[in-house]
Amino acid sequence: xxxxxxxxxxxxxxxxxxxxxxxxxxxxxxxxxxxxxxxxxxxxxxxxxxxxxxxxxxxxxxxxxxxxxxxxxxxxxxxxxxxxxxxxxxxxxxxxxxxxxxxxxxxxxxxxxxxxxxxxxxxxxxxxxxxxxxxxxxxxxxxxxxxxxxxxxxxxxxxxxxxxxxxxxxxxxxxxxxxxxxxxxxxxxxxxxxxxxxxxxxxxxxxxxxxxxxxxxxxxxxxxxxxxxxxxxxxxxxxxxxxxxxxxxxxxxxxxxxxxxxxxxxxxxxxxxxxxxxxxxxxxx
Length: 285
Ligand SMILES: [Cu+2]
Fold this sequence. Notes:
This protein is mostly beta strands. Helix content is 12%, strand content 34%. The structure holds copper (II) ion. Copper (II) ion (CU) is lined by residues 37, 40, 65, 132, 134, 142, 147.
């Protein structure tokens, strides 16, 4: 668990940016699912087909929550998933899942009071499991308290490609973002040009805190339970692992002006993505 946590908020160099594309409205999509996290459960509304699918993740609780996804192997069911969770069998969950299928750039982690939206076109049909491994104040992972669920992806693939106003590129050694301040509402097209999966998590930094301060806080100081008001920052959005050559679209809406950071939370220290340069800071004006 400590290792999984370490993988979470792991940070550096920012290259020159790209941007362009006139702002366009995101095409209305009916292929959408909303996941609402509280202590300690998920509320899921909507359903997903393959193709371009919108996943909205909301944290309406007092603690940090993640929606980690696994794609169950053909023939494996919600019952098999629940059995492995109840047994506390991390390896068992791995055994019934298709390795690598989860690196789709879906929403991943949020601190309380935030909401994020991502569009991915790489969800394969079948049963998907969702779980939260963040610990409560006593160190018990939320999944052991019932924070897991399943949903099914089925039907005809949706081909509507979202419009984006800016681009972010992930590589194995850095993240390239537009050089200028970001708007309070935007859709980013995120492409992984590296040879390994990477993630893109967006944080709001408090006071003079840096993205490194928040990363260290999460990995070393935070022990679970309610997210403290005096933490170096908050996780306001982003996507989890995105496979090489993968593309995902991340939307944030009405984020307040301020100082922000981004980081890939993929990998375990000392080989985590932050140590390899995948983090940086920006302003929303
Ligand atoms: Cu949780």
